[in-house]
């Protein structure tokens, strides 16, 4: 027996460590959709029932939804023998070396955890010990497995926390008080830790980058603005200032610098559709070298730009890449109850929303739109959500001259809710302050990304989103289905699910809007926007069931007011 033990403990002399040919930096370029090596191990330790597995699995789900690969190694899934502690640490190290996150949930002794840390540090890999700290009485009250009850009854000997002392970490990287914090709050603290250590990018956090000056610094900022050189901006520029200030363009912290602009222009990896601040050459020459300058609109200083970067704006190239056309008659190329973002997120929380589905529109709501929203809510309820909330989110910035103005659209939307076509108790109507660019599949990624930042996890995409007829040929400028297809593939939209827009038309038999069925084609009538406007201008009514009567009345009032003007 002694001889056999000796043989088992001897190391074979023909085993040589094989160095990888692929470096960690190279591996980081291809693991997940977010470039950069992020391999590390997070060891969650605490009493049984403290919430290690709950928090760990929730964090795993959160990171995977943001395209960061990770895997959980739960203590319940591996036998609690000492040799397995060493093995799980070695396995976690291999996961980390491959560029993935690994999460370990164990309450093993301090010596074992220190050994696991040493294994990682010897390989140059980050290791984070997180103390999941819940009082014993809280853990006992949870006792999902009934282990505390058995330990108190003497059926389990040496149970940690009852008749075996739990060795708390000496200096953990993070302490989570799960008796006081929600699971989501714990996740955000963990993500902040990983962000501070350079493991995850800033865009993974739920933090909104609002750019408003804090109240206690406002007087000082106004004093600065009054003595700084100024640049006069247009109304369109002001709308982009509002978009940035409210945090819709998170993680951007201002107008794009050249590096960010090139990423968007060539890779579409940041926030497609966001804007730069265009200056004249004389402004650039006047301000070159300035550490800061103020933005002025109609004599009012509205923002301060610090550490500005000036670079050439190659307009023809930008137009060709962003809009797919350089036609000078394209409207954006030619000119170039509202909730702020942070208020929206708070409102969702107050309403107890477990799902938020967003519907963007720049046109009046007809019953076909309502049918899509009603059907989405029905499908979410069938999937097990208890309280899905609709974000009806009309675009509030610049639009083409022939689009219905925002104030009239808001009145029309209010009438739709008043008539109960949409449920006012589970609907939030808010204004999305972005200007419209009519950039099709490129712009729709911006629209979806902004709603994701606001807290939406479902986004309804329709036919030809952000599209328009070509200014000269009058044909569709973009292929109508490409916007929806692009959204399902777009990088950076991993935490929002795209809901395809089903085709709705007027069912002449049902006298209501209905989902189109080509097998019953003769029953349907497609009422175009042109026909709708013609009916409204003439004061006629559309077919019964096409639009809520009060909402149609608002629309006819608008078009009749144009004739009076």
Topology:
Elements: H1 2-9, H2 24-30, E1 40-45, H3 52-65, E2 70-74, H4 82-97, E3 101-105, H5 110-122, E4 127-132, H6 136-142, H7 147-152, E5 174-176, H8 183-196, H9 218-227, E6 230-232, H10 235-246, H11 258-267, H12 281-287, E7 292-297, E8 300-306, H13 315-323, H14 331-335, H15 341-351, E9 355-361, H16 367-382, E10 388-394, H17 406-418, E11 427-429, H18 440-454, E12 458-461, H19 482-489, E13 497-500, E14 504-507, E15 512-515, E16 524-525, H20 529-537, H21 549-564
Helix pairs in contact: 3-8, 4-5, 17-21, 18-19, 20-21
Pfam families: APS_kinase (PF01583), ATP-sulfurylase (PF01747), PUA_2 (PF14306)
Domain APS kinase: 38-177
Family: In the C-terminal section; belongs to the sulfate adenylyltransferase family.
End-to-end distance, in Å? 105 Å
Low-confidence stretches: 1-8
**What class, by secondary structure content?**
alpha/beta
If helices are DSSP runs of H or I spanning 4 or more residues, what is the number of helices?
21
Strand order of the largest sheet: 2-3-1-4-5
DSSP helix fraction: 40-55%
The gyration radius over C-alpha positions equals 29 Å
Mean pLDDT, all residues: 83
Principal-axis shape: globular
The main β sheet shows up as: 5 strands, parallel
Annotation, overall tally of beta strands: 16
Q: What fraction strand?
A: 5-15%
Keywords: ATP-binding, Kinase, Nucleotide-binding, Nucleotidyltransferase, Transferase
InterPro entries: APS, APS_kinase_dom, ATP-Sase_PUA-like_dom, P-loop_NTPase, PUA-like_sf, Rossmann-like_a/b/a_fold, Sulfurylase_cat_dom, Sulphate_adenylyltransferase
GO molecular function, one term: ATP binding
Pfam families: APS_kinase, ATP-sulfurylase, PUA_2
């Amino acid at each position: 027996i002694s001889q056999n033990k000796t043989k088992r403990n001897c190391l074979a002399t023909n085993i040589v460590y094989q160095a990888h040919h692929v470096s960690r930096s190279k591996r980081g370029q291809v693991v997940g959709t977010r470039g950069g090596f992020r391999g590390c191990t997070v060891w969650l330790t605490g009493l049984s029932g403290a919430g290690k597995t709950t928090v760990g699995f929730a964090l795993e789900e959160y990171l995977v939804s943001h395209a960061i690969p990770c895997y959980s190694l739960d203590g319940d899934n591996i036998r609690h023998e000492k040799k397995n502690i060493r093995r799980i640490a070695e396995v976690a190290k291999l996961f980390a070396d491959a560029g993935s996150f690994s999460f370990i949930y164990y309450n093993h002794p301090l010596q074992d955890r220190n050994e696991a840390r040493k294994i990682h540090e010897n390989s140059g890999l980050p290791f984070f010990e997180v103390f999941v700290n819940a009082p014993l009485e809280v853990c006992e009250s949870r006792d999902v497995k009934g282990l505390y009850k058995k330990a108190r009854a003497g059926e389990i000997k040496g149970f940690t926390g009852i008749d075996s002392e739990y060795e708390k970490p000496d200096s953990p990287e993070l302490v989570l008080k799960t008796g006081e914090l929600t699971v989501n709050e714990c996740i955000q603290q963990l993500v902040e830790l990983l962000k501070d250590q350079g493991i995850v990018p800033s865009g993974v956090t739920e933090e909104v980058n609002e750019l408003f000056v804090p109240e206690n610094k406002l007087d000082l900022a106004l004093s600065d603005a009054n003595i700084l050189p100024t640049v006069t901006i247009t109304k369109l520029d002001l709308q982009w200032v509002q978009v940035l200030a409210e945090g819709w363009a998170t993680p951007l912290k201002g107008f794009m610098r050249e590096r960010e602009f090139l990423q968007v222009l060539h890779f579409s990896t940041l926030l497609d559709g966001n804007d730069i601040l265009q200056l004249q050459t004389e402004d650039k020459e006047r301000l070159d070298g300035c550490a800061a300058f103020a933005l002025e609109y109609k004599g009012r200083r509205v923002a301060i730009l610090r550490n500005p970067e000036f670079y050439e704006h190659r307009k023809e190239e930008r137009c060709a890449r962003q809009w797919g056309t350089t036609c000078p008659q394209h409207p954006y190329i030619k000119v170039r109850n509202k909730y702020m973002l942070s208020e929206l997120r708070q409102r969702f929380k107050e309403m107890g929303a477990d799902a938020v589905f967003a519907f963007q529109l720049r046109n009046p709501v007809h019953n076909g739109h309502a049918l899509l929203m009603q059907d989405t809510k029905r499908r979410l309820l069938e999937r097990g959500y208890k309280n899905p909330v609709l974000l009806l989110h009309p675009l509030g910035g610049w639009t083409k001259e022939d689009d219905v103005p925002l104030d009239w659209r808001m009145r029309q939307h209010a009438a739709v809710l008043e008539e109960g076509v949409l449920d006012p108790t589970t609907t939030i109507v808010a204004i999305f302050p972005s200007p419209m660019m009519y950039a099709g599949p490129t712009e729709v990624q911006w629209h979806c990304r902004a709603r994701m930042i606001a807290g939406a996890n479902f986004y309804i995409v329709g036919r030809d989103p952000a599209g328009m007829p070509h200014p000269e040929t009058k044909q569709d400028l973009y292929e109508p289905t490409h916007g929806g297809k692009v959204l399902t593939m777009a990088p950076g939209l991993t935490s929002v699910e795209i809901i395809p827009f089903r085709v709705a038309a007027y069912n002449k038999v049902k006298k209501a809007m209905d989902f189109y069925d080509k097998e019953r084609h003769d029953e349907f009538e497609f009422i175009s926007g042109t026909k709708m406007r013609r009916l409204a201008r003439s004061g006629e009514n559309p077919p019964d069931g096409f639009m809520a009567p009060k909402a149609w009345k608002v629309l006819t009032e608008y078009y009749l007011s144009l004739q009076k003007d």
